[in-house]
């Protein structure tokens, strides 16, 4: 019996992400407020592919400066897009991000957003910006994060004009808040400045534990349907909230790992059609490229990745959602689907996790091993390459 083989279109993927960094199709106009997210997915994808090395340093510097343009003048975080910059500070434009941008304008409607702040930090770390420690005030960002925490331990995405937490408080923002705190160096035993408080870690972890459902999964809120993407958010937040070698296991022990494992493992689809081997996010749904990462990374975080069928997963991604014409990855097996930055990056991220796992190195997965993906390792909790992760934890903060 002839062994099934596939082809990985590395060069097309690199070209796809570079196109996304240049000009996007008109359908992305509605995503202008999420522009930092699109840039993060594109640069993170190039990083895994080794494509960042092909970008001139002058261009990388332009990307960095573009990100710093979104740094709020109060130094408390980043806005998601320039469309939210409603006040005039042209005379101070050259000072944004240099530590001297004390603008007296009214910032009532130009508040930092936690998601934008997280994406901005990830981008600057992917670009290996050593000046990050000088150009942002991590204590002011931490203080804003603390003010976004609610009494139950969860986080809102930002503050309203009166300075109160505003917006949906669910596990997505718990993960985002924990990631910000980690990337700013406050989870590696670094004590916050005397003038600033840390988040309430215990309440934060207890809130996450309280969201776990009867089936082991996590939903957006208590008593809501379990969702694979939200499971990742909860696990990542737990690990990052007290991440060091002595407490990582304790944070995971706050949830029922056995029930969670069962919920996650049953997300891998077994069928007679093209959905076979992929992962869905909820019961009775088709496979979706993004859940191939959310579920796989969750199982890696609880050290149960041995329960994944790596070969079937890689066949789903390589043969059915990899876009062989444009590069990138489609969301689903629908022939009318086109790639987008989110699914393209997460498809690569899933392949990076399983192709760099030790069990694959032992030849247990012939299809996956035969692809010779040569993708950089990815950190499953911060969702950046291991190389970028190492850069982040070695930053010399003031």
- What portion of residues belong to β-strands? under 5%
Inertia-based shape: globular
| Poorly predicted segments | none
What string gives the helices and strands in order? HHHHHHEEHHHHHHHHHHEEH
Describe this structure in words.
It is a single chain. This protein is mostly helical. It contains 17 helices and four strands. The chain has a two-stranded antiparallel sheet with strand order 1-2. A two-stranded antiparallel sheet has the order 3-4. The radius of gyration is 21 Å and the shape is globular. It starts with 9 loop residues before the first helix and ends in a 5-residue tail after the last helix. The mean pLDDT is 90.
Throw out a few tags for this protein.
PGGT1B-like, 4 strands, mainly alpha, zinc, two-stranded antiparallel ribbon, two-stranded antiparallel sheet, transferase, repeat, prenyltransferase
Note the topology.
Blueprint: H1 10-22, H2 35-49, H3 57-68, H4 114-126, H5 132-135, H6 138-148, E1 158-159, E2 165-166, H7 171-183, H8 201-211, H9 228-241, H10 248-252, H11 257-265, H12 289-301, H13 310-321, H14 341-355, H15 358-361, H16 366-369, E3 378-379, E4 384-385, H17 386-393
Antiparallel strand pairs: 1-2, 3-4
Helix pairs in contact: 1-2, 2-4, 2-14, 4-7, 7-9, 8-9, 9-12, 12-14, 13-14
């Amino acid at each position: 019996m002839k062994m099934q083989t596939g082809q990985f279109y590395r060069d097309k993927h690199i070209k796809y992400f570079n196109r996304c960094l240049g000009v996007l199709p008109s359908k992305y106009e509605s995503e202008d407020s999420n522009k930092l997210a699109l840039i993060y997915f594109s640069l993170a994808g190039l990083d895994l592919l080794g494509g960042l090395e092909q970008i001139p340093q002058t261009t990388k510097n332009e990307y960095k400066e573009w990100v710093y343009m979104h740094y709020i003048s109060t130094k408390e975080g980043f806005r998601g897009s320039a469309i939210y910059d409603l006040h005039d500070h042209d005379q101070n434009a050259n000072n944004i991000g240099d530590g001297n941008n004390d603008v007296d304008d009214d910032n009532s409607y130009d508040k930092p957003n936690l998601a934008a702040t997280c994406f901005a930090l990830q981008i600057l770390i992917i670009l290996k910006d050593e000046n990050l420690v000088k150009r942002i005030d991590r204590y002011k960002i931490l203080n804003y994060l603390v003010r976004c925490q609610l009494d139950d331990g969860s986080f809102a995405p930002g503050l309203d004009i009166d300075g109160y937490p505003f917006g949906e408080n669910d596990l997505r923002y718990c993960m985002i808040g924990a990631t910000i705190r980690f990337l700013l160096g406050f989870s590696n035993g670094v004590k916050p400045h005397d003038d600033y408080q840390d988040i309430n870690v215990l309440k934060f972890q207890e809130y996450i534990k309280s969201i776990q459902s009867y089936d082991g999964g996590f939903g957006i809120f208590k008593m809501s349907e379990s969702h694979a993407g939200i499971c990742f958010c909860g696990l990542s937040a737990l690990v990052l909230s007290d991440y060091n070698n002595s407490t990582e296991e304790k944070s995971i022990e706050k949830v029922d790992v056995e029930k969670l494992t069962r919920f996650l493992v049953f997300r891998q689809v077994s069928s007679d059609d093209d959905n076979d081997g992929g992962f869905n996010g909820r019961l009775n749904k088709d496979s979706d490229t993004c859940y191939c990462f959310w579920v796989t990374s969750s199982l890696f975080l609880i050290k149960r990745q041995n329960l994944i069928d790596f070969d079937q997963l890689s066949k789903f991604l390589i043969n059915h959602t990899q876009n062989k014409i444009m590069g990138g990855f489609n969301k689903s097996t629908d022939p009318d689907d086109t790639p987008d930055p989110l699914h393209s990056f997460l498809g690569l991220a899933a392949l990076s996790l399983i192709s760099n796992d030790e069990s694959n190195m032992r030849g247990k997965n012939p299809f996956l091993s035969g692809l010779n993906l040569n993708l950089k390792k990815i950190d499953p909790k911060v969702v950046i390459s291991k190389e970028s992760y190492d850069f982040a934890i070695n930053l010399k903060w003031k």
